[in-house]
Amino acid sequence: MDKPIKTLLILGCGYVGSKLAAACVAQGMKIKATVRKQEAADRLIQQGFDVVINDDPALLDTQWLSNCDAILDSIPLSYDAQRKPFETQSSWVQPLVKKLPNLKWAGYLSATSVYADSDGAWIDEASTHFSASPRGKQRIKAEQAWFDSAAPAEIFRLAGIYGDERNIVNKLMDGGYKTVAWQPAHYSNRIHVDDIIAALLAAMQKPEAKRIINLSDDEPCSHQDYVCQLAEIIGAPQPIILTPEQAEKEMSAAYLDFFRDNKRISNRKLHKLLLPKLKYPNFRQAFVKKP
């Protein structure tokens, strides 16, 4: 990028967004952010960010937006009264982008849930084998809304996010955690929040419109292996291992769907273009205490 980004607008500034904001400020950028609740706004204001409470980005004040030259959309899917997910981007991306004529970079935080189950096969960004699930379909719609806009947008498909403040350590320590022993094993994917932030910062320095990048670590593994190894590392009781038949009786359909999914997300493009090495190439390195 010829000129560095000066002001980043973060829509839906939650867990990832607030960490990115802090990292950007450390690099000399200014931050503007939107949230939906006063409590969240208060926390961000205390950190010195310029924050507004907003449910519809199309209505953001043009003057407030005038100096923003980059934007990150971290707004999650919304859910109706029947818990059916829907995206909102198709209603506000176009009018918002018209208020941001000087954009140098735009990013949308999507999810690897856009990919269909692959029976454990590797999936990269070229895959068009998309999920038929409501969440997957709505994520694709949001991605397309950004690509159809005039913004120099790129998409980041995130695996399961974890970090120091967001993980299952407390659930494991409480005991009685249940997982499923699939045969053969079903792969799941994850990424540490610090590596997400590093990837986004790198992308801002080397922007590429229409780019799609998977953000996942180097070692997909079964959820069973994940929780059992993590329990051992942190000294928690070992999880309860259920057969698929037992899980059908004891777990909700939505929760069981999470365990049933089976795919390995390739991060080769991430390594090639943005991050040659991850800070946490696997979850073990994130939880093993350094001497």
Protein structure class: alpha/beta
CATH architecture of the domain at 7-163 and 190-218 and 265-280: 3-Layer(aba) Sandwich
CATH fold type of the domain at 7-163 and 190-218 and 265-280: Rossmann fold
CATH class group of the domain at 7-163 and 190-218 and 265-280: Alpha Beta
End-to-end C-alpha gap: 40 Å
Find the count of extended strands (DSSP E, 2+ residues): 17
Summary, kept brief:
The protein is of the alpha/beta class and 291 residues long. Helix content is 37%, strand content 21%. It has twelve helices and 17 strands.
Give short descriptive properties of this protein.
291 residues; Rossmann fold; alpha/beta
How does this model look, in words?
The chain has helices spanning 15-26, 38-46, 62-65, 89-98, 134-148, 169-174, 193-205, 223-234, 244-250, 253-260, 268-273, 283-287; strands at 7-11, 30-35, 50-53, 70-73, 78-79, 85-86, 105-111, 122-123, 153-158, 160-162, 178-180, 187-188, 190-192, 212-215, 221-222, 240-242, 264-265. α1 (15-26) packs across α7 and α4 (89-98) runs parallel beside α5 (134-148). The strands form 6 sheets. Strands 3-2-1-4-7-9-14 form a 7-stranded parallel β-sheet, with helices on both faces. It has a two-stranded antiparallel sheet with strand order 5-6. A two-stranded parallel ribbon has the order 8-17. It is built from 12 helices and 17 strands. It is an alpha/beta fold and 291 residues long. 37% of the residues lie in helices and 21% in strands.
